[in-house]
Amino acid sequence: MSGDFYDFQNLLTDEEKAIVERTREFLRTEVAPIANDAWANAEFPHQIVKGFAELDIAGLAYRGARSLLTGFLALEMNRVDPSIATFFGVHSGLAMGSVNRCGSDEQKERWLPAMARMEKIGAFALTEPGGGSDVAGGLRTTARRDGDTWILNGAKRWIGNATFADLVIVWARDEADNKVKGFVVEKGTPGFVATKIEHKMALRTVQNADITLIDCRVPEANRLQNAHGFRDTADILRQTRGGVAWQSVGVMMGAYDLALAYAKERTQFGKPIAGFQLVQDLLVKMLGNVTASLGMVVRLAQLQDEGVYKDEHSSLAKAYCTSRMREAVGWAREILGGNGIVLDYNVGRFVADAEAVYSYEGTREINSLVTGRAITGLGAFV
């Protein structure tokens, strides 16, 4: 990889490298050619799901794979298309992670194998129209038990995959004990409506939805049996937040690859613009951002695999790497000049998509406060 200047990928085993290479080839041949059209039309290319399933990489984290491998897979997806990477991350990370972390043995057996085969696609519904960063204490969606069923009422927003997902993990506050609980709402459940959010300027291929829940009845068998409060939800987010840091490295690496190739081919004043000092300066700054961030997420993966991974570790990585990503994609657009805003050159798509990656799974400000609390011992959230 041209952006892996310090050859971090050599930390993978030969078997892991083969999985990454197989995924890279699939992305190159099946995703890259359709990425711009899908983004422009804000349509999800359902035909690629079969190819993803054949890669057999969904839920690898819950099947014994190292975090370093799943991190590099996220990086590869984002180098090509952050929208498709987000689709996969929601399914494999948030949805499958919820079932794996909070489901009973029976529930894991019921849902995870089909999700791993991508026969059932998952979504994760936590964010609400009036609740983002403060959702931990302000969750308004309610759950009320009625015999062997639960009645859900409320609304969710920005829920990726929700318009077509087979299983949506809905987080709601139990009216009886005020605890946050998780529920698997299956496609076709009465009272559940997902409406696609239109006119997005980033991650347009991702089918984000507004969800309304009106007296939506879910059986007790679909309540995640080991979700007893928001702390359990936060455990899932801790793991996936580190994945977003990997995403941001992939986004800036993809933009760097494009800018480098363009600079070598684009001729001005009689020579390739890569031969000008100011262009080389931008390329080196981009590479520095990629390399520093990649070093951080590689160590983050090692901490995960060592079992000493904490909230502040993922929060610092998410805040830092996404900030460096924002800079890097801007420099890529600068190198391309006017062509940087034309979709055909791909860089403009990375610039737009970076804005969404920068904000989701915890804003820079919130992640800074999580890290700040860890290093000072003082909370400064309010």
Provide the low-confidence segments as ranges: none
CATH homolog superfamily of the largest domain: Butyryl-CoA Dehydrogenase, subunit A, domain 3
Q: Helical residue percent?
A: 40-55%
State which percent range the strand residues make up.
5-15%
Q: In the CATH classification, which architecture of the largest domain applies?
A: Up-down Bundle
Our count of domains comes out at 3
Helix/strand structural class:
alpha+beta
CATH class of the largest domain: Mainly Alpha
The number of helical elements comes to 11
Q: Mean pLDDT, nearest integer?
A: 95
Enter the CATH topology name of the largest domain.
Butyryl-CoA Dehydrogenase, subunit A, domain 3
Q: Rg to the nearest angstrom?
A: 21 Å
Head-to-tail CA distance between termini: 43 Å
Which descriptor suits the 3D outline?
Answer: globular
Order of helices and strands: HHHHHEHEEEEEEHEEHHHH
Largest β-sheet summary: 7 strands, mixed
Count of extended strands: 9
Question: What keywords describe this structure?
Answer:
Butyryl-CoA Dehydrogenase, subunit A, domain 2; globular; Butyryl-Coa Dehydrogenase, subunit A, domain 1; single chain; Butyryl-CoA Dehydrogenase, subunit A, domain 3; two-stranded antiparallel ribbon; 382 residues; 53% helix; alpha+beta
Question: Could you characterize what this model shows?
Answer:
Strands 1, 2, 3, 4, 5, 6 and 7 form a 7-stranded mixed β-sheet that branches. The protein has a two-stranded antiparallel ribbon with strand order 8-9. It folds into 3 domains: about 10-115, Orthogonal Bundle (Butyryl-Coa Dehydrogenase, subunit A, domain 1); about 120-230, Butyryl-CoA Dehydrogenase, subunit A, domain 2 (Beta Barrel), CATH 2.40.110.10; about 230-375, Up-down Bundle (Butyryl-CoA Dehydrogenase, subunit A, domain 3). The protein is globular, with a radius of gyration of 21 Å. It contains 11 helices and 9 strands. Helix 9 (about 310-335) packs antiparallel against helix 10 and helix 9 (about 310-335) packs across helix 11. Helices cover about 55% and strands about 15% of the residues. It is an alpha+beta fold. It starts with 13 loop residues before the first helix and ends in a 6-residue tail after the last helix. A hairpin with a 5-residue loop joins strand 4 (about 165-175) and strand 5. The mean pLDDT is about 95.
